[in-house]
Amino acid sequence: MPGLRRALLALFALGVLFAGADVALVLTSDHETQKALAAVLIPLIGLSFIGTGTFAWWRRPLNRFGLLMTAVGFAWFIGQLTESNNAVVFTVATFVGPLYLVLVVQLVLSFPTGRLDRVSRAIVAGAYFTAYVLTLPVFLLDGDLNPPKGAPDNAFAIAHEPGIANVVDLVTSLLGFALTAATAYVLIRRRRESTPAQRRAQAPMLWTGIVVIVFVGLVFAGNTVGVPDDVIGLIGFIGFVAFVILPFAFLAGLVRTRYSGAGAVGELIERLNAPDTRTGLRAALADALGDPTLELVYWRPSAGHYVTREGHRVELPAPDAGRAVAEVERDGKRVGAIIHDAALGEDPSLVRTAAAAAAIQLENERLDAELRARVEELQSSRARLVEVTMGERRRLERDLHDGAQQRLVALSIQLGLARRKLADDPETAGGLLDAARTELEQALAELRELARGIHPAILTDRGLGAALNALAERAPVAVDLHQMPEDRLPAAVEAAAYFVVAESLTNVARYASAEHASVRVGRENGYAVVEVRDDGVGGADPAAGSGLRGMADRLAALDGRLEVHSPPGGGTVIRANIPCAACA
């Protein structure tokens, strides 16, 4: 930024040199009758545009508005070279002179962003074409340039055809009037379509620009229909005064926005502190900032995303959506965000001040939104858990019926046969007893496997580390265990962590085509953090299968959060954050 500041100071110094050159020409001019007035007004007008333009340029370096206003100032100085007694300089300056008016048209059409839409670009292109392509024959054919008495002759004249030149001049005036009328229409329509915040910020500059454009258009119209010179002179004088005021109107808009914004923020603080107020925070902020479309969203640190006041998840708008976002912090922690009209971005300090004033109440509303979001999540996860539980019960029933129950029935039959054979055929009875023992061992193994799926005994008896070690030994891929907790965690936390690892390793074996996995369990800022990594194919989608969704539901019941990072071809990372009072 220091480099830009030096460049802008140098640009302003160049403007001072232009002003000095124009003043010197005024004082030596043979055709200037108001030398003292011109010597004061010419530099004052030009430097006011250049000074305001360089300030706007420094304030918003990426906005072209400051560049355009600075260009108007330099174009004004170039146009005033008509004070010269040299015919070539006088004629060139007369021809180039309308440039500052064309730039004013571009300036007001591009306010406040510095950019033109499709219609505005067409108007500006038409203005340049009219000013320099259609006007050129008037100079070449020695048309009436309305020079002051004693001014040099037209140095561009190559033929004396005043009749043709006057026709061209008439067409130029008609087109000039049409372009100014189109410009005024665009500006008025833009104001109607603006939000209250935009109108408040743009009013001084926009209305002054409209006055300039309208009265320039009236001058064109007067020249077309033959209005007396005195009337045209008065109309031109009013338009000239508005042109002179234009840079000060821009500064007035800044001051007006700042002071009205300060008053609005003061009123906002008063309304928020009033004990009997019934105005909600959103309505109070919308009124203070003049933006009825303003929205509030609240940060959920436990979930890592924003929610509405009703607790529904919401995404922030894209940068090109015509909306802007001001994040709100309290004591260095993010509590929410204000989504507002992008026009308020022209005065970001106003939004920041209003956000700071509302931070306490926003924090209170954030807690309400957090509670609603948790209730909604719990209701959803509880419904899914009930569904999963019923499914698990049906699976257990099926496994018991098809497995252990069938083996126990077979065992009963074998024992009955062995009893009948015991006296008559002891050898056969012994074989039946051996087969019954085998069935009993297999039934016990299947029951142990079922019990381990419900809640492994090793987890209760020896803790999470031993249970995860047993899981790793049974896993079909190589599993490394890192950073296991030294002390026991709460039983619910250990159970949740165990099943996260168990489900994750099951998914690694089934879907990941991985050769290696790693498991880490640590304590971080009041959370037990479980992380399972693999070197498989990636592409895991939490919304696609029941396994990851079931993990998320189990964690949600403990107010935990599941994170899945699984780029295609880049392996998968499953991370669970489980609130844990013993993990601070």
Structural write-up:
The structure is a single chain. By secondary structure, this protein is an alpha+beta fold. It contains 18 helices and ten strands. It has helices at residues 2-28, 35-59, 65-79, 87-96, 99-110, 118-134, 136-140, 162-193, 196-225, 229-273, 281-289, 348-357, 359-424, 426-454, 457-462, 464-474, 491-512, 546-556, and strands at residues 295-300, 305-307, 313-314, 323-330, 333-341, 478-482, 516-524, 527-534, 561-565, 572-579. Helix 2 (35-59) runs antiparallel to helix 3 (65-79) and helix 3 (65-79) runs antiparallel to helix 5. The longest helix has 66 residues, at 359-424. The radius of gyration is 41 Å and the shape is rod-shaped. The mean pLDDT is 80.
Q: Brief overview, please?
A:
The protein is of the alpha+beta class and 584 residues long.
Question: How does the SSE layout of this entry go?
Answer:
Blueprint: H1 2-28, H2 35-59, H3 65-79, H4 87-96, H5 99-110, H6 118-134, H7 136-140, H8 162-193, H9 196-225, H10 229-273, H11 281-289, E1 295-300, E2 305-307, E3 313-314, E4 323-330, E5 333-341, H12 348-357, H13 359-424, H14 426-454, H15 457-462, H16 464-474, E6 478-482, H17 491-512, E7 516-524, E8 527-534, H18 546-556, E9 561-565, E10 572-579
Parallel strand pairs: 6-7
Antiparallel strand pairs: 1-2, 1-5, 2-3, 4-5, 7-8, 8-10, 9-10
Helix pairs in contact: 1-2, 1-3, 2-3, 2-10, 3-5, 5-6, 6-8, 8-9, 9-10, 10-11, 10-12, 13-14, 13-18, 16-17, 17-18
